[in-house]
Amino acid sequence: MDLRFEPEDVEFREAARTWLAANVPSERRPEDGKAMRDFDNAWQRTQFDGGWAGVSWPTQYGGLGLPIVRQLIWYEEYARAGAPYTGSTFPAVFYGGPTLALRGTDEQRSRHLPRILRGEEIWSQGFSEPSAGSDLASVRTRARVDGDHLVVSGQKVWSSYADIADFHFCLFRTNPDAPKREGLSWVLVPLDTPGIEVRRIKTLARNHHFCEVFYDNVRVPLDNVVGGVDNGWTVAMNTLGFERGSAFLTEQLELSMTLDELIALCRARPSRSGHGSAFDDESVAAELAELRASVTALRAMSYRTVSKSAHGELPGPEGSIIRLYFAELRQQLATLAMRVLDTDGLEFTPYWESGWSGQWLWDFARTVGAGTSEIQRNIIGDRFLGLPR
Ligand SMILES: Cc1cc2nc3c(=O)[nH]c(=O)nc-3n(C[C@H](O)[C@H](O)[C@H](O)COP(=O)(O)OP(=O)(O)OC[C@H]3O[C@@H](n4cnc5c(N)ncnc54)[C@H](O)[C@@H]3O)c2cc1C
Q1: Is 31 a catalytic residue?
Q2: Whose CA is nearest to atom 27 of ligand 1?
Q3: Which of 1, 19, 261, 276 has the greatest number of C-beta atoms within 10 Å?
């Protein structure tokens, strides 16, 4: 690993900190629907106008074209400033857009990337289906080539933000006769195309951004295929590489602040023994110390990934290690908070307002989204440790 901050990086950090301090919105981010979309787009636009959107994206598509280390610094400062959760802009800005930048044609890049950075286009990911989640290669939604179009029929599920998005980037089966991974295509579908129906799914954590998306003979131009017909598996692997690796950097970096909040909670709550605060309880203090060490280790792993990218390597399977470690760490943190809160934890406090019970509920989802913990362990065993499948 070789990651040093040069004097210009330090200057960049100071400029980012100053800009964020002056521009982070003070109003609460709406947690749902069109109001949320408008807020997320407006905040993305503010970053673009301020000259901070797409730090490492190519300049010809509206980015700043700066080294990946500066992107890391931006994320660190973003987390530090308590800037809004990226929300509905997340799929396009953090992994859909980077996939297009890597695998799209010049025409596709010029059409979409600047609009994403300006907060004019929201994307939703349509990979999962009722019988294709962990086993993504089992995707069944059929896309038949008909002249210069695909005709799509089938169902997607768990598509975050599909109810408010403009585009759905999907994995479809274009060749049912080819081996599972060879007959798939990565396609960007305008969600206002006739034949598409979006239904929202409600969750226990009371956020409603999950959707089912139904396709009934939907005609999509072949120009919207990214990476070539029947070549979608390798494109999807790039998407997952970004999603598991760099996309969650801000949240990983935020974890240190969440731990500070947990320590403050432990100091404020009484100990179960009746003497002093929960913080004075030896087992709580030991767990907090362990959490601090783990959060520091996570940051070192994130730096390592960034350092690899800085040397030209694409995000690969090591994203699984970080994703697994991060998701389980978050659960451990929220579980300790719930223990300290005791019966007060039974009251629902939304995670989007940093409420602990809401975070605890939502943290279950973190060991499922972007691949479950079991799947990440399979990848680690298979790709790193060389264990038999
Ligand atoms: C917060 C969140 C956001 C999401 N956003 C999106 C989105 O925007 N777009 C999208 O397409 N999808 C999205 N998903 C869906 C997500 O990708 C899937 O839920 C995930 O891949 C698991 O698939 P599944 O739910 O079908 O579970 P299944 O694959 O049915 O798995 C069920 C259980 O079996 C275990 N299992 C399965 N196979 C194996 C195996 N080979 N070895 C060991 N254990 C195994 C799993 O670990 C799990 O515990 C999101 C999910 C969450 C939680």
Answers
A1: no
A2: 133
A3: 19
